[in-house]
Specification:
This protein is α/β, with parallel strands linked by helices. It contains 11 helices and 27 strands.
Length: 448
């Protein structure tokens, strides 16, 4: 049976992770993994709910040693737990905080006692089902995506090579949860197979991000999202030296990328991919719109659709985006198939409209929304929900008239205090649908 190691390196004294109390060596990490593996219940599925990135790493590897599969939902809502309990009756939830887990068999992360023997690096079967990640549900119900150990190893190696971390590992600070595919690949897998030690926490507020960066040595890599990055820059605080910035989960504007590079002096790279396919390509946003595939990955055209395959991709995965293939493993993105809109014969995309909305001075956040139902006159009417303190809907609409055709102007344009973004900055359609339903109800009662 073919096997691959849990870790790429063999230096047990190297730093594996940074915690508030100090660094954790590779040897101590392996000792913790073995100690937890001895205490885990005998079952097939581990629901790894650990918020602490180091405890997640210990739990994931301990589950591998026990032949378990790690379940990694993008949401930790009661509804998610109910669905998982029904689909995986044998699961046990590994927890490191007081999160409510009704209907689940719960195992709280214990105090671990490391053994005295020198640990060895485990070898894992390449075809072992190591993890099941779940899509964010931004376009519907979350879908399970199976990941074998062999493909996860290739994923971590490809990411490290594309970012140049195989030549010069960086200390990682992530603002995204490790259960999410982007956080899983760009913090945890880069630690296992890129030799990059990570900070155990998940800083959210700008000052916390700055303090965390200062707590790890250079070179430093900040793994973040456009939403978190925008808030960090808007705070206007002094930042420790950053050597590389990484962004994913949502389109990144050239304006924000340029501002980030100017403020930090570090190059900003974007990652393109999906939970289904894993990370597929990277680019430096300020260098242009062209993406370059990660090592080993291939894209193929099938009519109007593009499929990802080879390398670390599990099988052949149909992508949701409109893609123009270029020579030498490069391509251009032209928006999502589901985002394309045709109103009265005119075409555009939600991504384009959202970009124009965000460019209006004074708009802090915003999103267009296409309702499922048509208006009484049979014409689809776009809506928009906007966070813009100090602006009126009319002022925003006047500014939008200079940027988009009149037929795409939102009716209604609704001001809100915040948008229902999840922990990675994504906007699930269900959240926008709820906002729209609430607006319709208010309008029906004459309070719009």
């Amino acid at each position: 049976m073919n096997r691959l190691p849990l870790l790429a390196g063999d230096d047990l004294a190297a730093v594996f992770a940074w915690r508030p109390e100090g660094p954790v060596s590779v040897g101590d990490y392996l000792a913790d993994v073995h100690a937890l593996a001895e205490r885990l219940p005998a079952t097939g599925h581990l629901l790894n709910l650990c918020h602490d990135r180091y405890r997640f790493a210990v739990g994931f590897a301990a589950g591998l040693l026990r032949g378990m599969t790690s379940l990694q939902p993008s949401s930790q809502s009661p509804e998610t737990f109910r669905r998982l309990a029904a689909d995986f009756p044998d699961l046990v939830a590994l927890c490191d905080d007081p999160v409510e887990t009704p209907e689940l068999s719960r195992f709280d992360f214990p105090l671990l006692v490391r053994g005295r023997s020198t640990p060895t690096i485990p070898q894992i079967a390449v075809d072992h089902l190591a993890a099941i990640l779940f899509t964010s549900g931004s376009t519907g119900l979350p879908q399970a995506q199976k990941k074998t150990w062999g493909k996860l190893v290739l994923n971590g190696r490809a990411g490290a090579q594309a970012l140049g971390l195989d030549r010069r590992p960086h200390a990682l600070v992530g603002t995204v949860p490790v259960q999410h595919s982007y956080g899983f690949e760009s913090t945890f897998l880069l630690a296992l197979h890129g030799g990059c030690p990570f900070w155990s926490g998940k800083p959210f507020y700008p000052q916390d991000i700055a303090s965390t960066l200062a707590a790890v040595p250079q070179p430093r890599l900040l793994v973040t999202t456009p939403f978190h990055l925008s808030a960090l820059l808007a705070a206007g605080i002094d930042l420790p030296a950053v050597d590389l910035l990484l962004s994913a989960t949502a389109p990144l504007s050239t304006k924000l990328a340029t501002e980030a590079e100017t403020r930090t002096g570090a190059p900003l790279l974007e990652i393109y991919g999906s939970t289904e396919s894993g990370q597929l390509a990277s680019r430096r946003t300020t260098d242009g719109a062209t993406w370059t595939l990660l090592p080993g990955v291939r894209l193929e055209q099938d009519g109007d659709h593009t499929l990802a395959c080879a390398g670390h991709v599990e099988g052949r995965v149909a992508l949701s985006d409109v893609i123009e293939l270029l020579p030498d493993g490069r391509f251009l993105l032209h928006g999502r198939h589901a985002d394309l809109i045709n109103i009265a014969g005119k075409r555009t995309s939600l991504a384009y409209l959202n970009h124009q909305l965000a460019a209006v001075p004074g708009v802090a956040d915003g999103a267009f929304f296409l309702p499922d139902e048509e208006s009484p006159d049979g014409i689809t009417r776009l809506a928009a929900f906007v966070v813009a303190p100090g602006l009126t809907p009319r002022q925003i609409t006047v500014a939008l008239r200079q940027r988009i055709e009149a037929i795409f102007l939102p009716r209604p344009l609704v001001l809100v205090d915040e948008l229902p973004r999840n922990s990675t900055g994504k906007l699930p359609r269900s959240g926008l649908q709820t906002l729209y339903a609430e607006h319709v109800e208010r309008a029906g009662h004459g309070r719009s």
